[in-house]
Amino acid sequence: MTIDTHNLCIDFGKHRGKRWTRVPVSYLRWIANLSPPHRYREVAVAELERRNIPLVNCEIEITGHAIDSASLRLRRTWHETRKKNEGLHAWLQRICSEALADGDPDSEGRYNWQGMTLIFEAGEIVPILKTCMPVKTSRKRSTDSDSRSSLEDDEEYDYEDDFHPGDSYALGQD
Questions:
Q1: Are residues 66 and 20 in the same domain?
Q2: 88-146: per-residue pLDDT in tens?
Q3: Are 119 and 132 in contact (CB under 8 A)?
Q4: What's the rounded Cα separation, in Å, for the pair 139 and 150?
Q5: 34 in any annotated domain
Q6: Nearest Cα to 29, choosing from 156, 99, 123?
Q7: Spatial distance between the Cα atoms of 12 and 146, rounded to a whole number of angstroms
Q8: Is residue 168 a part of any domain in this protein?
Q9: Neighbours of 88 (CB within 10 A)
Q10: Which of 60, 86, 107, 126 could be 82's S-S partner, Cβ–Cβ 3.0 to 4.6 Å?
Q11: Whether residues 28 and 65 fall in one domain
């Protein structure tokens, strides 16, 4: 049975009140990939089929949070390991594909790959990268009086954690 999406309106979320035929492709794919399946999964799939758009355009879905986290916390790693003209999103796609194919998840399902921790969620169709961060490294407490001596054994100081958008220095004000 084919679902006719022309006269159906979406009744939830940020596109409430719009016709399914006007909902962006990214939103339709998101609904189709939710796990457990969303109550309107069939409608989203039917609309993608009506538009002749593939259900999946990549092998891994990357959340906006994961992109933000990578841009703030993994920028150096990206610059050092990216291929020529490889943007952040394409780099994350490649790194995640490698980790899922060749890596082993820990007991919590996290992948430690090339100095990064990648946290995935199972999607209905493709895995979803929820967030990423540098691997925490263990440091011995220093016995001298350097500034790192106050850090806990498993804590590494990250100067990027000191940046808070909205603070006066971030806005270029005094």
A1: no
A2: 988 999 999 999 999 999 888 899 999 999 999 888 888 889 999 999 776 555 454 44
A3: yes
A4: 11
A5: yes
A6: 123
A7: 55
A8: no
A9: 16
A10: 86
A11: no
In a domain, residue 37? The reply is: yes
In terms of residues, how long is the chain?
A: 174
Strands 128-134 and 61-62, by their bridges, are: parallel
What does the pLDDT look like over 10-56, one tens digit per residue?
Answer: 999 999 999 999 998 888 888 888 877 888 999 999 998 888 887 76
Give the structural domain span for 82. Answer: 61-134
Neighbouring residues of 113: CB distance < 8 A, sequence distance ≥ 6: 95, 98, 99, 103
With residue 139 as reference, give the H or E element that holds it.
Answer: none
Q: How far apart are CA 16 and CA 88, in angstroms?
A: 31
CA distance 42 to 37: 9
